[in-house]
């Protein structure tokens, strides 16, 4: 097993030299070490690669007759997706397996004959324990084309030291109205930012859109673009009002998940972050000064909504159709992403909320006092997750093949108009609707 990091990559040049680590490049042996079957894998996050490497070793221990030699290449995020799209369009230089970020997944499942291998059968031994909404995210026409990495359930992270200094008790925050009132009070008392209005990522707002019963597309999220629907307008007006009231502020880097933002949060410039559960890893890895100061709690609610949280972000791991070892790659991938062992590793190594719900019920794993994430936070992530697990909704718009275009519109134009320029939310959304209809030919 080995992991190679490509620090910079030019897609066209990569293809011209035979598609680095592509299984059909012609210069890569089909058989790995000790007769194991060589499988090439592309990822954009090195930590993901470390988990796959660990799972490959465990797979080989359990399946010596089907041993694999996993060759992992880590590319920069955009380079990897561009390179993979070129490879599937040309049919050359394909890896056996690849991570595809959820915002890019729609680019690979358009039409009736996607270039991804059907993973439905390989999932059967595990599927009863997996959060169905996360399988649905990477499924089309009742076929699974990608295995999820985590649930990504939205939760709230509160800096209790900062809030207590301003006389605010985070445990009283239940709804978005409570969140707004607490944020305004905190801003007035301290002159500092409470929570985040992101301009570089369209992420937290879809949680509240889902809680309001809305989608970004019509026909329950799978039809034409509908970003100016009443539910989306109502939600974005709520967030704009929070920004105007001082409860939300823009953040360096444009989102909480940015290197500049980590420094600002670590310095105490923000007191509350509503983000997916995988953000635990960002605190532990990048904000060491906040250890022992952060409490995890349920995300704010829309009163009366059955949707308490949704999965945010994600990576669907795929097998590319037409490669030589499709069936073996799919069988290994199901074990590496869906099994109990894999999901324990997802929590212990990455700090992500596992898609295999049996892990959520194993307190020896979830409440291990030696776990670095349990040591860091005041409250236990799984206590929070189990309190909302019956309200995990599936935001169908995340499965729409045109999501990448909508996401790009919000990240590059619409969020800046609403949060920076002060354009009324409805006007900004009407313009986004018109722009997207033109772009998508709808």
Condensed summary:
By secondary structure, the chain is α/β, with parallel strands linked by helices.
Explain how this protein is built.
The chain has 442 residues and is α/β, with parallel strands linked by helices. Helices cover 42% and strands 13% of the residues. It has 19 helices and 14 strands. The strands form 5 sheets. The protein has a 5-stranded mixed sheet with strand order 1-3-2-4-13. Strands 10-7-11 form a 3-stranded antiparallel sheet. Strand 5 and strand 6 form a beta hairpin. Helix 2 runs antiparallel to helix 14, helix 13 packs across helix 14 and helix 18 packs antiparallel against helix 19. The longest helix is centred in the C-terminal third of the chain and has 19 residues. About 5% of the residues have low confidence.
Oligomer: single chain
β-strand percent reads 5-15%
Radius of gyration: 22 Å
Structure summary, number of beta strands: 14
Low-confidence blocks of residues: 9-29
Spatial sequence of strands, sheet with the most strands: 1-3-2-4-13
> Helix/strand-derived class?
alpha/beta
- Straight-line distance between termini: 47 Å
Number of helices: 19
Mean pLDDT: 91
Helix content: 40-55%
Q: Biggest sheet, open or closed, and with what strands and sense? A: 5 strands, mixed
Shape: globular
Features:
about 450 residues; alpha/beta; 5-stranded mixed beta sheet; 3-stranded antiparallel beta sheet; 19 helices; about 15% strand
List the helices and strands and how they pair.
Elements: E1 2-5, H1 11-16, E2 37-43, H2 46-62, E3 68-74, H3 77-90, E4 97-101, H4 102-105, H5 120-123, H6 132-137, E5 139-140, E6 143-144, E7 154-159, H7 160-165, H8 176-190, E8 195-196, H9 204-211, H10 230-244, E9 248-249, H11 259-266, E10 272-276, H12 280-286, E11 294-298, E12 309-310, E13 315-319, H13 326-338, H14 340-350, H15 363-366, H16 372-376, H17 381-388, E14 392-393, H18 403-421, H19 425-440
Parallel strand pairs: 1-3, 2-3, 2-4, 8-9, 12-14
Antiparallel strand pairs: 4-13, 5-6, 7-10, 7-11
Helix pairs in contact: 2-14, 13-14, 18-19
């Amino acid at each position: 097993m080995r992991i190679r990091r490509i620090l910079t990559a030019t897609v066209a040049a990569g293809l011209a030299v035979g598609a680095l680590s592509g299984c059909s490049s012609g210069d890569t042996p089909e058989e790995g070490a000790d007769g194991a079957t060589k499988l090439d894998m592309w990822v954009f996050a090195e930590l993901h690669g470390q988990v796959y490497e660990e799972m490959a070793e465990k797979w080989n221990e359990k399946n010596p007759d089907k041993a694999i030699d996993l060759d992992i290449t880590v590319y920069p995020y955009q380079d990897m997706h561009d390179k993979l799209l070129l490879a599937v369009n040309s049919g050359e230089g394909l890896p056996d397996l690849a991570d595809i970020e959820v915002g890019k997944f729609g680019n690979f499942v358009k039409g009736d004959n996607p270039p991804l291998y059907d993973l439905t059968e390989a999932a059967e031994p595990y599927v009863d324990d997996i959060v169905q909404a996360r399988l649905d995210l990477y499924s089309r026409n009742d076929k699974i084309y990608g295995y999820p990495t985590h649930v990504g359930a939205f939760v709230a992270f509160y800096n209790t030291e900062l809030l207590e200094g301003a006389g605010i008790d985070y445990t009283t925050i239940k709804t978005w109205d409570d969140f707004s009132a607490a944020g305004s009070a905190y801003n007035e008392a301290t002159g500092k930012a409470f929570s985040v209005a992101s301009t570089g990522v369209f992420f937290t707002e879809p949680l509240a859109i889902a809680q309001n019963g809305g989608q970004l597309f019509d026909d329950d999220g799978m039809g034409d673009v509908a970003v100016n629907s009443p539910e989306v307008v109502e939600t974005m007006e709520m967030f704009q009002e929070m920004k105007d009231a001082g409860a939300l502020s823009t953040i360096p880097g444009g989102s909480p998940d940015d290197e500049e933002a980590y420094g600002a949060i670590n310095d105490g410039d923000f007191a509350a972050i509503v983000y997916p559960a995988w953000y635990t890893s960002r605190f532990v890895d990048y904000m060491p000064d906040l250890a022992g100061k952060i409490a995890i709690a349920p995300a704010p609610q829309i009163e009366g909504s059955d949707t308490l949280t949704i999965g945010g972000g994600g990576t669907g791991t795929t097998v590319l159709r037409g490669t030589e070892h499709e069936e073996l790659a799919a069988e290994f991938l199901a074990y590496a992403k869906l099994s109990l062992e894999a999901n324990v590793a997802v929590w212990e190594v990455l700090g992500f909320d596992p898609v295999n719900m049996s892990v959520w019920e194993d307190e020896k794993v979830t409440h291990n006092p030696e776990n670095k994430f349990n040591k860091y936070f005041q409250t236990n992530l799984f206590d929070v997750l189990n309190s909302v697990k019956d309200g995990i909704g599936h935001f169908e718009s995340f499965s729409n093949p045109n999501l990448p275009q909508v996401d790009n519109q919000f990240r590059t134009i619409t969020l800046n108009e609403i949060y920076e320029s002060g354009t009324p939310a409805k006007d900004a959304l009407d313009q986004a609707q018109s722009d997207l209809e033109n772009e998508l030919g709808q």
